Amino acid sequence: MADGAHRAVQSSGAVLDTGSSIFATLGYLCLILGGLFLVYWLLRRFGPFGMGTPGSNAHSPRLLGRLYLGNRQSVAVVRYKTKTMVLGVTEHQINLLGQEEGDEPEDNEPSSSAFAGLLKGKVEDASES
């Protein structure tokens, strides 16, 4: 009886080869992960609603400059729409030090001298009041 069952398995041609099935499984896994990564990349590159890069959206805040003051403390100049804000950033909080309304800037790349001038103006305004 066992001999008949053995012949039935051999005649069906179903032979399990664990080496090739493991490689096939890994191949499908890589294919699926690659497809997921491609979809993620396409959504990040061309997708709507904040999945794009920070500079791709006109309404996203842009960091114009940052001055590090110490351990996890800095002063940052951020532009959002038409407002330019000077922010004090620490490990636990963010404080608005000053803000200025203005038109959209002509150039996309801010210079470090513009940051220094804006920071100097805000420091002078704070010392006067």
What do you see in this structure?
The protein is an alpha+beta fold and 129 residues long. It has two domains: 2-46; 62-128. The protein has three helices and four strands, in the order ααββββα. The protein has helices spanning 2-12, 18-46, 112-128, and strands at 62-70, 73-80, 83-89, 94-101. Strands 1-2-3-4 form a four-stranded antiparallel sheet, covered by helices on one side. A hairpin with a 2-residue loop joins strand 2 (73-80) and strand 3. The N and C termini lie far apart (102 Å). InterPro entries: Flagellar_biosynth_FliO. Residues 96-129 are annotated as: Disordered. Belongs to the FliO/MopB family.
By oligomeric state, this entry counts as single chain
Q: Mind summarizing the main beta sheet? A: 4 strands, antiparallel
Q: What is the helical fraction, as a range of percent?
A: 40-55%
Distance N terminus to C terminus? 102 Å
Number of domains: 2
Strand order of the largest sheet: 1-2-3-4
Flag low-confidence runs: none
Rg (CA only): 30 Å
